Predict the structure.
Amino acid sequence: MAAMAAAEEEYEAVLCVKPAVHVYRVPPRASNRGYRAAEWQLEQPVWSGRLRITAKGKTAFIKLEDKTSGELYAQAPVEQFPGIAVESVTDSSRYFVIRIEDGNGRRAFIGVGFVDRGDAFDFNVALQDHFKWVRQQSELAKQAENPEQGPKLDLGFKEGQTIKLNIANMKKKEGGTGNPRPRPAGPGGLSLLPPPPGGKSSPAVCPSAARPAPLSAPTQLPGTPITDSLLCWPQPAAAAPSAAAADIWGDFTKASGSPSSQSQGNAGWVQF
């Protein structure tokens, strides 16, 4: 984590680049009133070039560079905005006073002016956005260290507070899961499925264990539809097989029966 933090500190991001900027000498301020650009001899700038704002970690750097070679003319580190490192003048929105440093502890205040008001606006907004991001990162770091101190949401109902649910537009579908249709019950308490629409009902099979004693079949009137109750009526016990059927199967049995009968049938044949 320490290595990643060090790498982030070394990374330098470019926030804003403006190709035309002028530098002016700033006379010493005699009182606490603000700077005035009318006192700078605006017709005679000390230096002209481009301005570039970069950021490394939480610090922003205002760099004055040559337009062609990119050679650094002066640099102003900004650790807080608004602050003493960058101040606006009282009589114009295109001029600012910045505090430059040479890296050896020497500091000086110079005036910076933009040719276009839009460039001055972008310069101001770039610094504001950077330090807004710095404040957000600081708040997130504090919340990560002390998560219990962060704001908590109260989602409970207060005393006497109620809510309303509008269910007037909800329609109850017939045969839904809330009110299922009753199924007809067959003999023995078994539930039978209704026949499909437009089709013929299949005869219901009555379980043998639930069959009552043999009763006479009910009389069906002409024109009365066949219902499950009629189909499920207990049928009489099957009659014993007739003698004719027994004789037919008996002949078959005799024909393919014991080997003695076969030998008797083949008595008239000579065996080779």
In short: The helical segments are 2-10, 117-145, 228-231, 243-255, 259-265.
